């Protein structure tokens, strides 16, 4: 699992990336952007598919003070994709680097990649 794109830091005072993309995830995001326009990610700690990163058209998922912007991906030739996580979930994951990967299988029906027979998946690594 090699990351090909790191998100720029978005949390105040941080100078390191907390989120990255694999090549398959980046390829899917480029296709989804071409079809849907600007995108965003959100990962909650909820039940069902809520523990998987979900991709939405930008603004379709309303964030609030209960969410943390972990990083922003700059999609070459397209634009920015923010990666949000619920603050409660971030309290558990704050010491990990999150790498968004793409695998075969049905994920959330709400996430844009679902009709493709694929799903985004988080692979985590402890940060030292």
Cα end-to-end separation: 19 Å
Based on CA atoms alone, the radius of gyration comes out at 13 Å
Strand adjacency order, main sheet? 2-6-7-4-5
The total of helices stands at: 2
Oligomer: single chain
Number of strands: 9
Report the sheet with the most strands, covering strand number, pairing sense and barrel closure.
Answer: 5 strands, mixed
- Global morphology: globular
Structural class: alpha+beta
Give the helix proportion (percent range).
10-25%
Strand content: 35-45%
Topology as H/E string? EEEHEEEEHEE
Look at the structure and give the mean pLDDT. 92
Low-confidence stretches: none
Task: Describe what you observe in this structure.
The protein is 16% helix and 42% strand. The chain is α+β, with helices and mostly antiparallel strands and 128 residues long. The chain has a five-stranded mixed β-sheet with strand order 2-6-7-4-5. The protein has a four-stranded mixed β-sheet with strand order 1-3-8-9, with helices on one face. A hairpin with a 3-residue loop joins strand 6 and strand 7. The relative contact order is 0.24. The model has no long low-confidence stretch (mean pLDDT 92).
